[in-house]
Amino acid sequence: MKKLDIISINDFSKDDIVHILELARKMEKNTKPLLKGKVLATLFFEPSTRTRLSFESAMKQLGGMTIGFAEPKATSTAKGETLHDTIKMVEGYADVIVIRHYLEGAARLASEATFKPVINAGDGANQHPTQTFLDLYTIKKFQGNISKLHIGFLGDLKYGRTVHSLVNALAMFDCKMTFISPESLKMPSSYLDFLATKNIDFFEKNELDLQDLDILYVTRIQKERFPDAMEYEKVKNAFILDKSILKGVKKNFKIMHPLPRVNEIHPSLDNSGYDIYFQQAHNGIPVRQALLALVLNKIK
Question: What mean pLDDT is predicted for residues 177-193?
Fold first, then answer.
């Protein structure tokens, strides 16, 4: 099989995405050790809880093993080793590599350095494709379908890689989108231009308007992405959601969040019946199981 990498959601067609979501659905019922004897390397140059642990859990539940690091300062990169050389070394230790890096394009570079499959777990403010797959899986699970929904995005839309990946994917399903953010954190124009070329309806707002939404996808204001700390202070509390936002929302309305949250979603919304962000995170297991088995040619 030709080497399959998971680098960008843009590398997949709508049919590819639908197929992967179906594989994930089947994985929820799978009990076979499909990846017995296989080794996953998790190379995390940025902090992670959900992505790293769910990849490791997914691999182990399928009978595989994991190696890797979550603190790059304890590796040879602190001695000056290049990303290319790190990948060349790791390819001799593992069958598949998952990488998170602070530089945009790092995952693509890693994939070009090795003959082993590489999965992008987030590269800077660019892409987070496996998060997109689990987001789509969650939407389909709770809404019954993905096509022609109205999705709202709230918070940091400038630096939010989960938003960037998801917007590109939702365009394939003809979803209407509303972008709600402070002026300084608006959706980059390149993504809006892309939606325009696809004739996708979208709206930009700087105040909450949830009346017509099927899904509200909330993101935290990412302090670590701001080059100027003062700019972060200006917008860090731009939106704080509590139960008061639920007045007048649709019956099927759901709130998603890639997590971690800081203070943008008050705990009073937990168990409100509209919150699905913890289930969303847990859906990372079957989705990442499907992706791991797929790139290792154990399912088709």
Answer: 93
**Distance between CA atoms of residues 289 and 287, nearest Å:** 5
As a whole number of angstroms, the distance between CA 135 and CA 288 comes to: 12
Q: For 67, what's the count of Cα atoms within 13 Å in the CB-facing half-sphere?
A: 13
When divided into structural domains, the chain yields a total of 2
> What does the pLDDT look like over 54-74, one tens digit per residue?
999 999 999 999 999 988 887
Whether 16 and 114 map to the same domain: the answer is yes
pLDDT confidence of residue 197:
96
- 154 and 106 inside one domain: no
Whether residue 227 is preceded by a cis peptide bond, meaning omega within 30 degrees of 0, is: no
Task: Say how many C-beta atoms besides its own lie within 10 A of residue 126's C-beta.
Answer: 20
pTM of this structure: 0.92
Residues 23 and 276: their CA atoms lie apart, in Å, by 21
Question: Residue 244 sits in a domain of what CATH number?
Answer: 3.40.50.1370
pLDDT digits (tens, 9 = 90+) for 88-117: 999 999 999 999 998 999 999 999 999 999
Verify that 155 and 241 share a domain, yes or no. yes
Q: How far apart are CA 242 and CA 191, in angstroms?
A: 29
**pLDDT (tens digit, 9 = 90+) per residue, 139-165?**
999 999 999 999 999 998 988 888 999
Residue whose tokens read 């007045």: 247
Order of strands, sheet of 96-101, starting from the edge strand that comes earlier in the sequence: 65-69, 39-44, 96-101, 118-123
Residue 47: what pLDDT? 87
For 203, list phi and psi in degrees, rounded to 5: -135, 145
Could you list the residue range(s) of the whole structural domain that residue 75 is in? 9-128+283-295
Residue whose token pair is 């700019």: 231
Residues 48 and 70 in one domain: yes
Q: Are 146 and 136 in contact (CB under 8 A)?
A: yes
Write the single-letter amino acid at 161. R
Residues facing 217 on adjacent strands: 153, 256
